[in-house]
Amino acid sequence: MPRPPERVADYPRPPRLEREARRARIILGGETIADTGADTGAAWRVLETFHPPTIYLPPAAFRAGVLRPAPGGSFCEWKGMARYWTLAGGGRLAERAGWSYPDPTPGFAALRDHVAVHAGMMDACLLDEELVAPQPGGFYGGWITAELVGPFKGGPGTLGW
Questions:
Q1: Domain ranges within the chain, ordered by starting residue
Q2: Topology (CATH) of 6-134
Q3: 69 to each of 53, 72, 74, 140, how far by Cα in Å?
Q4: Which stretch of DSSP H or E encloses residue 65?
Q5: From the first residue on, what is the mean pLDDT of each consecutive set of 10 residues in the chain (161 residues)?
Q6: In sequence order, which residues have a C-beta less than 8 Å from that of residue 7 and are 6 or more positions away?
Q7: Which pTM does this prediction carry?
Q8: If we measure between CA atoms, which residue out of 60, 29, 23, 57 comes closest to residue 43?
Q9: pLDDT on residue 159
Q10: Measured between alpha carbons, how far is residue 140 from residues 76, 130, 145 in Å?
Q11: Which residues face 17 on adjacent strands?
Q12: φ, ψ at 32 (rounded to 5°)
């Protein structure tokens, strides 16, 4: 059954954190490197105006050895300081393709150590077996699914939104 439409223009600012009920899977190098389907805990999604949801998977969803610390970090005014991860799977490395918040702000405490991944840097990211499209651009990490209605921030000319 199709999900009802969600207009990303109606998402809140500041962002809202909610559980992602769908199974999340990530494939890299032809291998499933993360899966929330088997006793790993559910993912979270962050909803922010004009962004497709960013999906954060629990650490237990990732196979051992997939997550490798990467240099650098960034600051989110809502979530705090992020650290970056390089992901490994099937002989491939995706440099700085993931990020997490080891000490998030109180409103996003549930995200502690959960990892978000840039869909465009993976072979595939899926929600309940639906192949997601990456958020335009390369800076933001939202996952676009069929029920989402744009426009989406991230493409040329949208950074000032």
A1: 6-134
A2: 2.170.150
A3: 24, 9, 14, 19
A4: none
A5: 92 96 97 90 95 97 98 95 98 98 97 97 97 93 97 88 76
A6: 149
A7: 0.96
A8: 57
A9: 76
A10: 11, 20, 15
A11: 46
A12: -75, 115
